[in-house]
Specification:
148 residues, alpha+beta, five-stranded antiparallel beta sheet, 45% helix, 22% strand
C-alpha cells in the first residue's frame, strides 16, 4: 500500500478532491544518496498535485488526511497508460510494413505507427471514462494515525 498526506479541498458526494502536501519522490532529495526525482518532479510540476479519493472516513474540508493507494491499482494504471499505446504503435507499424507496397513501406509504417499510438491513447481515455473503471481505482482517505 502506498501512502501520502493530503488536505481535503472539496467534497463531492462520497468522493473528495484532495491536494497532496508532500512533494514527489521519497523525500531524500537533499541527502547525498538521494536520486533527485523529487527535484525533477518540482521542475515539471510546479502546481500542487490534486486528485479524487474515496471519502470513507467522512473527512471535512481542510482536514489533513492520509491517502492510501493499492499497489495493484497503480501497476494496472501504468500498464494501461504506457503499454497499450505502445502495443498499438507497434501493431500499426508492423501491419503497415507487411501490407504496404515495397516502394513506400517505411512511410506507411511510420504513418500507421503514429495512428496506432494516437488510437492507443484515445482507447486509454475511453476506458478510463467507463463508470466502474475510475471508482475501482480511487485512493482511500483515512484519518492520520496518532503518533503520540
Amino acid at each position: 500500500m502506498l501512502n501520502t498526506r493530503a488536505v481535503v479541498i472539496r467534497l463531492e458526494g462520497r468522493e473528495a478532491l484532495v491536494e497532496s502536501t508532500q512533494g514527489g519522490g521519497c523525500g531524500h532529495c537533499d541527502s547525498e544518496n538521494g536520486c533527485g526525482s523529487g527535484k525533477l518532479s518540482q521542475l515539471f510540476c510546479s502546481e500542487p498535485r490534486r486528485f479524487r479519493a474515496l471519502n470513507n472516513s467522512n473527512a471535512q474540508v481542510g482536514a489533513v488526511v492520509q491517502i492510501s493507494v493499492q499497489e495493484g491499482v497503480l501497476l494496472r494504471s501504468a500498464i494501461l497508460m504506457y503499454v497499450l499505446p505502445l502495443l498499438m504503435l507497434l501493431a500499426g507499424a508492423v501491419l503497415a510494413g507487411l501490407w504496404a507496397p515495397d516502394a513506400n513501406r517505411d512511410a506507411w509504417s511510420v504513418a500507421a505507427g503514429v495512428i496506432g499510438l494516437v488510437a492507443g491513447f484515445v482507447l486509454v481515455k475511453i476506458l478510463s471514462l467507463r463508470p466502474g473503471f475510475v471508482s475501482a481505482g480511487l485512493p482511500l482517505i483515512s484519518p492520520l494515525p496518532d503518533v503520540s
